[in-house]
Specification:
This protein is an alpha/beta fold. The chain contains twelve helices and 13 strands. The chain folds into two domains: about 240 residues, Rossmann fold (3-Layer(aba) Sandwich); about 70 residues, Alpha-Beta Plaits, CATH 3.30.70.920. Helix content is about 35%, strand content about 30%. Strands 5-6-7-3-8-9 form a six-stranded mixed beta sheet, with helices on both faces. Helix 6 packs parallel to helix 7. The longest helix is centred in the middle third of the chain and has 18 residues.
Length: about 350
């Protein structure tokens, strides 16, 4: 499998100055300034293979957006090397732009005051999409995203969910091999999010489109990505499989049990269960916390149901959001397990 994106020792520095307060401070800033350098991206290296869907996450100010802007050719790196789709993005922007799609959740690429279909037709001419391909893709997008009912509506009159569907379709209209997604489900309701995610998975499966996704909604990561990169203070902290990250940082499991009556709840509370922490959810429900390495869920369930009348059982998996929160809180990361590092 070939690398679609290759990033080596990437650095981006910004020169800023400390603004003085007040009107006289602003006047003084016109004549003298205290400049300082700020490093937004600090020697980042990674590669993305064809067809991968990779999550790229971090807290605000971590360097995500700066990285994406360099990868799309908007910003010029201070140092380091980028190759994407065989191009150096900031040097070959015109040709490179024809091979990528970009969705910015907080900015639209559609023209504000004209119908959606008119924006699509303009993009058709810009990217020189044959009419047959354009018609086929638009029909397919309508089947999945239900675009037809508002194709002739001005973009300014669309809801956020409707606009995001149109923005995703516009980014994929020329069938780019590489798609950058920056907060593609921001502000959407659950149904709209599910539609967008299902569509992206189908595009990846059908066309092998490589996708790099930045988001604060970690449900997007869990639904779409098998690989995760975590950046903080400009440095790449982790690059590896999502399952491996959860497995290595998720040591505790939980089982929720709904019991027949209070008598059974009291009986469960009196059981000798070494290494198990019992949390009462309500009068008839408890949550049992245990270390995965010490015992299996099956053995714990078997032990309990042999002694207590249980009505319902649910094994609760820790979310990736909790795992990432622990990482941001300073918990040590597992050893890098990126696909690139294993080659």
């Amino acid at each position: 499998m070939s690398a679609v994106i290759e990033v080596e020792d990437l650095v981006k520095d910004f020169r800023t100055f400390d603004r003085r307060e007040g009107v006289w401070g602003a006047v003084r800033d016109l004549y003298s300034r205290n400049y300082r350098n700020f490093r937004a991206v600090d020697h980042v290296s990674f590669s993305v293979q064809a067809g991968e869907m990779v999550g790229y996450i971090g807290p605000n100010g971590a360097g995500k957006s700066t990285s994406i802007k360099m990868l799309t050719g908007i910003l010029v790196p201070s140092s380091g090397r980028i190759r994407a789709n065989g191009f150096t993005p900031f040097r070959e922007r015109s040709r490179y732009a024809r091979t990528i799609g970009v969705v910015f959740g907080q900015r639209t690429q559609l023209w504000w005051d004209i119908g959606v279909v008119e924006s699509f037709r303009l993009l058709q001419h810009i990217y020189e999409i044959p009419q047959e391909d354009y018609d086929r893709r638009l029909k397919r997008f309508d089947e999945v995203l239900e675009l037809k009912r508002y194709l002739h509506t001005p973009v300014r009159k669309l809801s956020l969910g409707e606009r995001m569907r149109c923005d995703v379709a516009a980014a994929l209209l020329h069938n780019p091999p590489l798609l950058f997604l920056d907060e593609p489900t921001i502000g959407l309701d659950i149904v709209a999010k599910e539609n967008i995610r299902a569509f992206l998975k189908e595009v990846n499966r059908e066309y092998g489109t490589t996708m790099l996704l930045t988001t604060h909604d970690l449900s997007d990561i869990e639904e779409l990505c098998q690989r995760l990169m975590i950046i903080d203070h400009g440095k790449l902290l982790f690059d590896g499989g999502l399952a491996a990250l959860k497995r290595q940082l998720w040591q505790e499991s939980a089982i929720r049990m709904d019991l027949r009556d209070r008598e059974q709840a009291a009986l469960l509370g009196a059981l000798d269960l070494p290494g198990v922490r019992l949390e009462r959810v309500d009068d008839l429900s408890v949550r049992l916390h245990f270390q995965r390495e010490a015992m299996s869920a099956a053995s714990l369930i078997r032990r309990v149901v042999n002694e207590v009348h249980v009505l319902d059982i649910a094994i609760e998996e820790q979310s990736i959001e909790n795992v990432v929160r622990r990482i941001y809180g300073g918990e040590s990361l597992p050893q890098n397990t990126s696909p690139a590092s294993q080659q």
